[in-house]
Design brief:
The chain is mostly helical. 60% of the residues lie in helices and 2% in strands. The radius of gyration is 22 Å and the shape is globular.
Length: 482
């Protein structure tokens, strides 16, 4: 999932000219008013704007356990994340010919880590991601993807995105140690507290606080690659602190410079997938809802990102349509499945690609550069795995803020039949620590309010069906079906 960490300055393309050679003709570089140097600069800009995912995705997935108590290896997750980003970004560049890079989504990985994995094994959870990718491809092939998207009102889609943003922010606060769970022994109804004991103590928390301030300061100054710069600076600071001070625990990752910063990639997680094993663990209905949740997390974010970037890059026609859209959408479906197949979670389009567009990128050549850089990152696993969560999780707060700021204005707060469901959706995700619950309660609320307001005909049939499925899901315990 992804939102831009920068506000790139648009670069006006040159007037179209005749292609200079076959390479130029294939990527339509001159036709789109670009140049090879611009595409290369754009590819680098996009990589540096989104490379933080190599660090964050392993932290999110690696900190979770499946139902058997198994955790994914952090080094293998770095390899899987970089490999899938490289493959799918190159595929989008060479086949889709658009400057839209892809990597593990920062919303769907929380679904996999916190909702799917605890109920099944890791291969089962990743199998459901693969199935979601197959569904995306099927919807594109049958022409149903845009129709399904239109069934969910814009305001509710924005509520889903905002809820995921709030959820991501809460994950960042908890994983950094800035906020912690109050133990049951305290006998209090208050679930969370500041720091580990109600106060902010220790070097790791200080690294997180300074990282948040640095990230936000760079964003305010509109510095390209603000998130990545902050992660690098605070990692260096953490390494120094760890070397000169006594730190009881950094949590998942200790910031210590590796003896050998270059290593052979570990592909141990690639192919560790069980397509239908999860259904045996949670049942058919719950399994379908899990796949549906992964599908939604990828579905609407990718659609909006693709349209937004294509418009920014001046790739749309007078009607706002981008030629070859179905091909791009199909590759996005392949990316979702590829993420599951590599155990790096669903891969999706990154709006950080606007950083490359701002540098002048207009074609898939920029993606070739970005994908190549992700491939190089495969051999730098020791460096990526030395980054502590306190240096990386400030990015979660930044991304969460960008999601909120970009979506909250699109909700019609005067129409309570859409404003209330959107409000319910965005609050229930962090408050129940479940994206599934947020979506389900939002859909049900929307359907009920539209009916009681005498606007039943305005509710698409698909919304009635999905709301009924969610209602049955919530009633299953009362009906003795779980």
């Amino acid at each position: 999932m992804s939102t831009s960490a920068t506000a790139p300055v648009d670069v006006n393309p040159q007037p179209p000219s005749a292609p200079k050679n076959g390479f130029d003709r294939y990527f339509k570089i001159s036709e789109r008013g670009s140049t090879i140097p611009r595409e290369i600069r754009g590819g680098f800009a996009t990589f540096f704007a989104m490379a933080y995912i190599i660090v964050l995705n392993p932290i999110i997935l690696g900190s979770a356990k499946d139902m058997y108590g198994h955790q994914l290896d952090n080094g293998q997750l770095v390899t899987a994340t970089a490999l899938t980003a490289a493959f799918t970004t190159l595929l989008m560049g060479v086949i889709g010919n658009v400057p839209i890079a892809l990597a593990a989504g920062l919303g769907v990985n929380t679904v996999v880590a916190l909702q799917l994995a605890p109920r099944m094994s890791w291969p089962d959870a990743m199998g459901m991601v693969v199935l979601a990718g197959f569904v995306v491809m099927l919807l594109v092939a049958t022409g149903l993807r845009e129709r399904v998207m239109n069934a969910v009102p814009l305001g509710l889609r924005k509520g889903i995105a905002i809820g995921i943003g709030l959820f991501i922010m809460l994950i960042g606060l908890v994983d950094s140690g800035f906020v912690s769970r109050i133990p049951d022994a305290a006998h209090t109804t208050v679930p969370l507290q500041l720091g580990a004991d109600g106060h902010l103590n220790g070097w790791p928390v200080l690294v997180f606080v300074l990282g948040v301030l640095l990230t936000l300061a760079l964003m305010v100054r509109k510095v390209p690659g603000a998130i990545l710069i902050s992660i690098v600076v605070m990692t260096v600071a953490a390494v120094i602190i760890n070397a000169v001070a006594t730190v009881p625990s950094w949590g998942l990752t200790t910031p210590k410079w590796p003896g050998n910063p270059v290593s052979t990639p570990d592909f141990g997680l690639v192919g560790q997938v069980s397509l239908f094993g999860g259904f045996e663990k949670v049942g058919i209905l719950t399994g379908v809802l899990f796949v549906f949740t992964v599908l939604l997390s990828c579905f609407f974010d990718a659609m909006g990102t693709i349209m937004g970037i294509s418009d920014e890059a001046k790739l749309t026609d007078a009607n706002g349509q981008m030629p070859g859209m179905n091909k791009v959408l199909f590759i996005d479906g392949i990316a979702v499945a590829a993420g599951g197949a590599s155990s790096s979670s669903a891969t999706t389009c990154f709006v950080e690609s606007t950083a490359g567009v701002g540098e002048g990128a207009r074609t898939g050549l920029a993606n070739v550069v970005t994908g190549g850089l992700f491939a190089v990152a495969l051999f730098l696993t020791p460096i990526a795995t030395m980054v502590p969560s306190q240096a990386a999780t400030p990015a979660l707060l930044a991304v969460g803020f960008l999601i909120l700021s970009g979506g909250i204005r699109a909700i019609d707060w005067d129409d309570w039949t859409i404003a209330i469901p959107a409000f319910v959706t965005m609050l229930m995700m962090p408050f129940t620590y479940s994206i599934t619950n947020g979506i389900g309660m939002g859909f049900i609320t929307f359907t009920v309010l539209r009916v009681v307001a005498g606007r039943a005909k305005e509710v698409p049939v698909a919304m009635y069906a999905v709301s009924a499925v969610f209602a049955f899901y919530y009633l299953m315990p009362a009906l003795g079906l779980t």
